[in-house]
Design brief:
Elements lengths: L1 H15 L39 E8 L2 E7 L7 E8 L4 E6 L3 E2 L3 E2 L1 E3 L2 H9 L7 E3 L4 E8 L1 E7 L3 H31 L3
Antiparallel strand pairs: 1-2, 2-10, 3-9, 4-10, 5-9, 6-9, 7-8
Length: about 190
């Protein structure tokens, strides 16, 4: 991990000093968890599906926060796991049609080894017991062939925050209006 940090620091310094041959785009990196390598997700390979042998993906349509595709599994009686080229966030949902059945989007994780836990402690990373795999890509368990649509929907907490924000702005507006009308009474034009 130290080598990555040194490499990133060297890259940032060279770009800061005016090296136009290099390009960095840190937009969105603040939303990733610590197990996501922000250099890896910018590689063209990140946009590939990872499937079991014999699984066919076709008719791929991708838009902002939406991915649709058809899937053909070799054995409809056997569950297969795929990873799709989208980073998991709470709020992603999968809809299945044309016979497809499967799970909701999840992160694939594993327990940290003792050496990884020691390295994390030494690097002063937050104490967590599980490591996110495959740079945070969404995993789906598919049971039947058909059509899959994965899209993002706001969570209850996001809606609640939006409502609280609007109530706060309305209160601020009325408070200022009330103060302005009181000042107008004391100091008429």
């Amino acid at each position: 991990m130290r080598e990555d940090n040194k490499k990133n620091e060297k890259l940032l310094k060279s770009v800061y000093k005016g090296d136009k041959s290099k390009y960095i785009d840190p937009v969105g990196d603040e939303y990733y968890n610590l197990d996501i390598n922000n250099q890896e997700i910018r590689l063209p390979q990140f946009t590939e599906f990872q499937t079991a042998k014999g699984v066919k993906i076709s008719t791929i349509k991708k838009r902002y926060n939406l991915l649709e595709f058809d899937i053909k599994v070799p054995d409809d009686k056997k569950e297969t796991t795929i990873s799709i080229p989208m980073i998991w966030y709470k709020g992603y949902r999968a809809e299945y049609s044309r016979g497809a059945e499967g799970s909701q989007p999840v992160l694939k994780q594993r327990v940290f080894t003792e050496s990884e836990l020691k390295e994390n402690k030494k690097a002063r990373r937050p104490t967590v017991s599980e490591k996110v795999l495959n740079d945070g890509k969404i995993y789906l368990s598919i049971r039947n062939s058909g059509h899959v649509k994965v899209s993002y929907h706001k969570t209850f907490i996001q809606y609640l925050g939006f409502i609280i924000e609007w109530i706060s702005w309305i209160l601020v507006f009325f408070i200022f209006k009330q103060k302005y009308s009181k000042n107008k009474e004391h100091f008429p034009s």
